[in-house]
């Protein structure tokens, strides 16, 4: 199969998430990195792009130049990753979708629910893929959890407990550092800080694994560092459309916690626990049974887990390989479209614009409920009510 062409906007030198995308997209030989507008400083972006191997005429100075340059080419990029700061996602994603490109957009997909609905509509009307990088759903054992729930190993799901709590913004003396401060400033970050940044990963993963969507929620949001306008900690209770009860904790002041993304699922017939810092083990407790550790890469797991596990059992796989699984899904989706065949259902798991939109609705619901002392609110986007 011919390699697909891939391009990236943002993710310049020294960025947090750029390297994980380049590793992920390059891993399986499905994509060639051929174009980019990598930095908000045009010259730095051009220079870095060429150092990464881009041709000089495809190492663009900004995303509009890249759109103009790529749309006329026979060998235009098949997929564009948008890994710029949040406030730019909407206009870049919209422009590329409207010009016939498939897009993988970083989270949060947009800054408002209305923008999210527009992206969903454009993606549906144009037929172009808009994926959203909830990259942690690419972990093999997260795929396996989803498969176990879907095949009924846990029975009816009673409870979901999701966490994404770290301690990297806990130093009150550092709260005025410009790299930290903007995140808690509504003018730059929007209506929510910690929930919009990290909480949505945990909430999305709860939906991904259970196959249920969040209907309503109640949030207790606080700024533990009092100079912050937006929350640095939130506890969210939620209810899902399949009857599951959800609890979510997210924090940026949990000193001692590093990444802190953890999911627990409790059903009538068993419970599961997975943590992103030990992603190669999944804890499974069948009702009245004994605790088992499921290892990534062991035989006899689900097709979804087998497909997304690459390195032999016992050798750790980590976050860039989880991203690689999102890219492999997208490569399969794009190749299937190109050749007019049905895609492999085990690959049809990449998060979509609809998921990005649901997250935006949850962000606004958390902000609203948090301001009103935890009143229960509808967490669904108007489009899906
Ligand atoms: P960063 O600030 O470390 O890097 C941003 C990069 O984008 C820089 O290289 C900057 O020069 C470039 N840039 C900014 N504006 C641009 C523009 N208009 N055109 C081209 N390039 C531009 O940011 P970071 O942490 O890498 O985050 C980027 C996005 O990725 C954010 O939306 C963030 O929420 C998301 N993210 C997602 C993660 C995940 O697990 N899915 C993890 C970390 C970040």
UniProtKB/TrEMBL annotation:
Residues 5-134 form the Gfo/Idh/MocA-like oxidoreductase N-terminal domain. Residues 142-273 form the GFO/IDH/MocA-like oxidoreductase domain. GO terms for molecular function: nucleotide binding. InterPro entries: Gfo/Idh/MocA-like_OxRdtase_N, Gfo/Idh/MocA_oxidoreduct, GFO_IDH_MocA-like_dom, NAD(P)-bd_dom_sf. This is Putative dehydrogenase/related protein. The lineage of its organism: Bacteria, Pseudomonadati, Pseudomonadota, Alphaproteobacteria, Hyphomicrobiales.
């Amino acid at each position: 199969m011919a390699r697909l062409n891939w391009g990236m906007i943002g993710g310049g030198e020294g960025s947090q998430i750029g390297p994980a995308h380049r590793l992920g997209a390059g891993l399986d030989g499905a994509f060639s990195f051929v174009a980019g507008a990598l930095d908000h400083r045009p010259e730095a972006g051009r220079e870095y792009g060429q150092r990464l191997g881009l041709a000089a005429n495809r190492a663009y100075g900004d995303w509009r130049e890249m759109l103009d340059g790529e749309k006329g080419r026979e060998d235009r990029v098949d997929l564009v990753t948008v890994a710029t700061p949040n406030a730019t996602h909407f206009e870049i994603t919209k422009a590329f979708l409207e010009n016939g490109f498939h897009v993988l957009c970083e989270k949060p997909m947009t800054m408002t629910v209305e923008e999210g609905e527009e992206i969903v509509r454009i993606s549906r009307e144009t037929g172009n893929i808009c994926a959203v990088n909830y990259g942690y759903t690419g972990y093999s054992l997260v795929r396996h959890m989803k498969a176990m729930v879907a095949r009924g190993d846990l029975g009816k799901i009673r409870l979901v407990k999701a966490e994404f709590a770290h301690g990297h913004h806990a130093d009150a003396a550092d709260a005025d550092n410009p790299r930290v401060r903007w995140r808690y400033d509504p003018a730059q970050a929007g209506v929510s800080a910690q929930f919009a940044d990290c909480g949505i990963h945990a909430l999305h993963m709860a939906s991904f694994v259970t196959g249920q969507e969040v209907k309503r929620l109640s949030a207790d949001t606080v700024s533990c560092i009092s100079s912050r306008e937006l929350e640095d900690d939130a506890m969210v209770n939620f209810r899902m459309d399949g009857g599951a009860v959800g609890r979510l904790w997210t924090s940026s002041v949990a000193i001692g916690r590093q990444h802190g993304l953890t999911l627990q699922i409790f059903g009538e017939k068993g419970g599961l626990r997975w943590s992103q810092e030990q992603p190669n083990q999944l804890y499974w407790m069948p009702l009245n049974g004994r605790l088992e550790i499921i290892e990534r890469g062991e035989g006899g797991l689900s097709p979804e887990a087998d497909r997304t596990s690459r390195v032999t059992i016992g050798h750790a796989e980590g976050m860039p390989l989880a991203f690689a699984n999102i890219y492999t899904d997208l490569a399969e989706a794009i190749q299937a479209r190109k050749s007019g065949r049905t895609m492999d259902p085990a690959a049809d798991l990449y998060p979509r614009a609809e998921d990005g939109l649901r997250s935006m609705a949850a962000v606004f619901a958390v902000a609203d409920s948090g301001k009103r002392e935890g009143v229960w609110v509808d967490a669904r986007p108007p489009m899906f009510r």
